[in-house]
Amino acid sequence: MNKNAVETNKVTELVELDKQHFIHPSTNPHELVAKGPGIIFSEGKGIYVKNMMDGKEYIDGMSMLWNVNIGHGQEEVVDAGKEQMSKIAYSSAFKGFSNEPAIKLAKKLADLAPGDLNAVFFTSGGSESNDTVIKFARFYWGLKGKPTKRSFISLNSAYHGVTLAAQTVTAIPAFHEFAGSNIDEIFHAKPHLLNCELGDKTDPNYEQSIRGIIEREGADTIAGIIMEPVQGAGGVNIPPEGYLQAVRKICDEFGILFIADEVICGFARTGKMFGVENWDVVPDMMSIAKGITSGYAQLGGVMLNDEVRNTIVDYDGMLAHGFTYSAHATACAIALKNIEIIERENVVENVQAMELELKKGLAFLAEKHSIVTNTRCIGLLGAFELYEDPSRGKLFGEDVFPANKVVDECFKRQLILRALGAHNHIIAIAPPLVTNAEEMEKIIHIIDEALTTFK
């Protein structure tokens, strides 16, 4: 049997095994069993990944799940993980046990983070981080003698994860409602109502604003306001200028914790090390994950400001919260090397330069294709929308699924993108942060071809 026949048989076997035994996250299970996996990744380098099923290279236009910031196949990161694993791959962090990479990473994060965010609790990923931040906020207010401060406000279209509390503060219906499992005392505000947050009670949406909810429910019941600096899965929604500052002032005014979910925005994605730095805002607590290791290992964390940290460390009892893989030694070593590469290779500066290229490309698409509208990006976090008639605000019919169709056409041309939006009308673009101008031009060219085919 020749090599090609062997590879074909291998792929056929893997597809069948996948269909029979692998329940995929965020996937249509019926369709998966009927059709099998759309791609089986075998290797990657830079912004490219290889599909075992057809042997072709694809551009990873989404950094997988917004997280492979430094690109695929970075041998230095692999070596850092191997070196740590050869010493001790994992050790517990319970009962005060520690390890060198975790200690060094905690210090490095304190140096990088804005303001007085000087301490970190490690998790295994973003959902765990956002569950942790909710628990810590309630714990903090209990220690401060204010146990009634238990509620949280998040924004409509927010995505904060799929664990129980994170799922509840998420406000994308399919995720928020899954399995009917939610916690109480969560409110969702209409996003980006700047004038309302500044106190304009004449706005008809005032009662749905953050300020309106606080006034209705009482500040003595609100523990925190949690938000993504830029909403990711909700549609790459960039806040208006002054909005984050207004929310920060509301938190100061009413004695509420401002919690930034930097799971997607962190580690250079927006052209700053952290998204909040685009607006010179310092949160009280900050969830991190994804880009902290660029996906080379599972790691997340919650950063705490000095006030919250000092209050918690004054607690003379067991902190009854933790994960088996908190402060995983190998993951922390990988994160340190990942951050070293981001700094050494001037990745933030490259993102700023590529933001300009992406903006030019999106403007070209909007000018050429009448269905393209509402283009936007900050750093290498971008999106555009598809309307049947943008001038009249007319969306395509519910049976059209325009974003899916364009994304599928891009996939046929070996570019991976992601469809978003309740009306399936948003396409997100978030390539690795090491993307260069030539590669960005290629991404735009493929999208151009896909849009032409769709029309």
Textual characterization of the structure:
With 455 residues, this protein is of the alpha/beta class. It contains 16 helices and 15 strands. The chain has helices at residues 3-21, 29-35, 63-66, 75-88, 100-112, 126-143, 164-169, 173-176, 194-197, 210-217, 243-254, 306-313, 329-344, 347-368, 402-412, 437-454; strands spanning 41-45, 48-51, 57-60, 117-123, 151-155, 186-189, 222-227, 257-261, 285-288, 300-305, 372-378, 381-386, 415-416, 418-420, 426-429. The strands form three sheets. It has a seven-stranded mixed β-sheet, sandwiched between helices. Strands 1-2-3-13 form a four-stranded mixed β-sheet. Strand 2 and strand 3 form a beta hairpin. Helix 4 (75-88) runs antiparallel to helix 13 and helix 15 crosses helix 16. The longest helix has 22 residues, at 347-368. It is globular, with a radius of gyration of 22 Å. The protein starts with a helix and ends with a helix.
Provide the residue-averaged pLDDT: 97
The poorly predicted ranges are none
Number of strands: 15
Distance between the first and last residues' Cα: 45 Å
Can you give keywords for this protein?
single chain, 455 residues, alpha/beta, 7-stranded mixed β-sheet, 15 strands
Offer a concise description of the structure.
The protein has 455 residues and is an alpha/beta fold.
